[in-house]
């Protein structure tokens, strides 16, 4: 009974996510579902990405958190359209939550929508929101064992950003192991080593994201 209930929940979410995707496609909006554990650096990456691409693309953000609006306030200071989703205890945002947030945006005026998911390495990977791709962050203080412990997150993501490289000399993080294990789970995974704090390594990530957006644009009728 539990398995059937979970399947029904995921099926219902997928239907809503497909509706979201149709709406995004109709308006030419490329959508990222950004996931990580708490404190890995999602909001800082969003800020850095906005700074790098705001002259090229019209960007908007959906912030997902259990409570509070501090991350949305950080993004709003960049003069970027942003909506906060507070899940009230749920460990992820889902298709329906995103659908309810969309009336707050003029989708015809957005090129890139970043959804910053709730900090969690499990549930966000299971729930589509209508995104073009999932992107995850793993920070060096978390340890290199995470691909083997949380394989679905790595399997479902198109890109892995290994953040806080500025701390690599001070934490027990085996970069080679993290790369090897992540690619064993998902050989197509694009991996970027960055420090969102210093800006180190961000250029290849920005280049990859730009390529994804441009490929999406060219694929549209």
**Uncertain residue segments:** none
| N-C termini distance | 44 Å
Task: Enter the CATH topology name.
Answer: Rossmann fold
Supply the helix-strand structural class.
alpha/beta
CATH superfamily annotation: P-loop containing nucleotide triphosphate hydrolases
Look at the structure and give the CATH class: Alpha Beta
| Biggest beta sheet summary | 7 strands, parallel
Number of strands: 7
Count up the domains.
1
Side by side, the strands of the main sheet go 3-2-4-1-5-6-7
Give the overall shape.
Answer: globular
Strand content: 15-25%
The percent of residues in helical segments reads 40-55%
Total helical elements: 8
Radius of gyration: 17 Å
| Average of the residue pLDDT scores | 94
Order of helices and strands: HEHEHEHEEHHEHEH
What is the correct CATH architecture? 3-Layer(aba) Sandwich
